[in-house]
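Side project, low priority. Logging it here so it doesn't get lost.
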Amino acid sequence: MFDLLIARWRQGHRTLGFPPAEPVLPDRFRGRPEVEVAKCPVNCRACSEACPTQAISFDPKGVKIDLGRCLFCTDCEEACPQHAIRYTADYRLAVRSREHLAAANRGLALAQALDDQARRLFGRSLKLRQVSAGGCNACEADLHALNTVVFDLGRFGIQFVASPRHADGLLITGPVSRHMALALKKTFDAIPAPRLVIAVGACALSGGPFLDHPETLNGAAGTVPVDLFIPGCPPHPVTILDGLLRLLGRRAEGQPPA
């Protein structure tokens, strides 16, 4: 026992200071993409042709990136001959409406808090039932990381529960395969109203790499109403945590990371 206490003392404090302190992210972290439109060659479509999920399109204003489809794979960044696209360290990606992600590189309307009544219900204690609706386990792994001492999700009163009867909301990962659609709907129906629905990851937002596949339903919104969309493939635990805290009105706005 004495040796265990010594080892724990040597480890020091492991929990992130986020929030209010900004998180320290790895150098290879890929956050919100930016496009320098002035650098884009006329009639160049190299980035959109390289994108595996058709997340990049063009209109009269130039390049448009749909973060709901984006896999953050950097294929577009590598394909651009003028290096006009780059991925920033901005981890703040969660929104309340799927449409807000459609042209995210031009400005992102970050998630607004629930109304006063909903915050009184969920603001200090939020229980979530997580459903993997055909996911690859990447988003699920980062959700699991939120329960570790590093992120310590429970300190915010947010917990995952085993039964939808004990839940305040539903957190969905995966593209929603046809075999999981009924199970997802039954889980949603089993959660007492009022309830929240949170979609996490590109698959749950749009189908991701399985977009328009005949065996998937292109994400959660076609089966259940979604209150919070968190993009990524997978989203970093800090991105997920930031979105959850914004929804609950517990995230003070700060300056965007460089």
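Brief comment: Residues 116-247 form a domain with the Rossmann fold fold (CATH 3.40.50.12280).
Revisit when time allows.
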